[in-house]
Amino acid sequence: MQMKTIQPVTVFQALGDETRLRVVRLMVVAGDESCLCELVDSLMEPSYKLSRHLKVLRQAGVLVSRKEGRWVYHRLVSESPCLELLYKMVRALPDSQGVYGTDLKRFRERLRLREGGRCQVGVQSEALKDEVV
Amino acid sequence: MQMKTIQPVTVFQALGDETRLRVVRLMVVAGDESCLCELVDSLMEPSYKLSRHLKVLRQAGVLVSRKEGRWVYHRLVSESPCLELLYKMVRALPDSQGVYGTDLKRFRERLRLREGGRCQVGVQSEALKDEVV
DNA sequence: ATGATACTTGTACTATAGTGCAATAATGCA
DNA sequence: TGCATTATTGCACTATAGTACAAGTATCAT
User: Fold this and answer.
1) How far is B119 from chain A (nearest CA, A)?
2) Domain span including residue A58
């Protein structure tokens, strides 16, 4: 599932979306892996949307995903000098609207719900729970 | 014409195109400014196409343009720590297809046509000259 | 087995980006 | 002034990306 060589254009395209950049920034700064529901609660975006964006990041080789039970944990790929430089740049990006800061704050709070370092719950934000009525 | 704050997403979008990345890579590695016709001869792409791509890079705040007679010289913006990190990453990108290398080679040859450090001629590649018949 | 939970994806829709041709500035030279 | 040269842009066309809803898959608990 790993890419042989990174495709520079694809990587930049992957970062060229507000939602995806929020994900990458969050993971760069937090330095932790995350499952989908934690990202949903951190970014306050619907799961189907984030799931698609995570797929784009994965296909670009920026992210790898690991399934553990019902949860899928995502983390940044850190085996490439180029990507490391990219993350360094992402970490240095200004947070003019405070969005990245808010995402991080919510993420850190959400991490407190883990038990034994593992996520045990689903989406907490009422408005974003899949209303399977 | 300078941007107050850089818009991260816009910058990544600007780099997320093959042609524009070739331009940026060329300028990062060559470390020189360039006019449109020099870029046309280096990348072997039509001038109207490159002109549009240069505009995108300019609007993203990655590039500034300076008019001098009939020529317009373009150079990378280097007043931002973020952009410097980005250039460092671009410089480290693999050149798997050898495209960047070929662009650079042609660019260096093209620079020899300058006199007094200034471009004095237009597009040299016959196939790309605007056929104003 | 049944149902709940965590996540993914088929489909349809809309908006935007990239391209090529042709026309249009803008500048300098004879 | 007229014309060649350097560069930009209006327009039409096509392809692709992002979104939302709803349906689907995979896993676990009871």
Assistant:
1) 30
2) 18-109
A74 touches strand D (CB under 7 A): no
**Over the stretch A25-60, which tens digit does the pLDDT of each residue have?**
999 999 999 999 999 999 999 999 999 999 999 999
Residue A79 lies in a domain: yes
- Using a CB–CB cutoff of 8 Å, tell me whether A6 touches chain B: yes
Residue B78 DSSP label: -
**Contact flag, residue A46 CB and nucleic strand D, below 7 A:** yes
Q: Does at least one atom of strand D sit less than 7 Å from the CB of A122?
A: no
Residue B73: which pLDDT band, with cuts at 50, 70 and 90? very high
Q: Are A121 and A113 in contact (CB under 8 A)?
A: yes
| Close Cβ partners of B66 (under 8 Å, ≥ 6 residues apart) | B33, B72, B73, B74, B75
CATH assignment of the domain containing A101: 1.10.10.10
Cβ neighbour number for residue A87 with a 10 Å cutoff: 23
A43 close to A49: Cβ distance less than 8 angstroms: no
- The alpha-carbon gap from B70 to the nearest alpha carbon of chain A, in Å, equals 32
Tokens 């609660």 map to which residue? A41
Protein residue closest via CA to C1' of D21: A48
Whether B128 is in a domain gets the answer no
Q: Does B116 fall in a domain?
A: no
- Is A34 a member of any domain? yes
What's chain B's Rg over C-alpha atoms?
A: 15
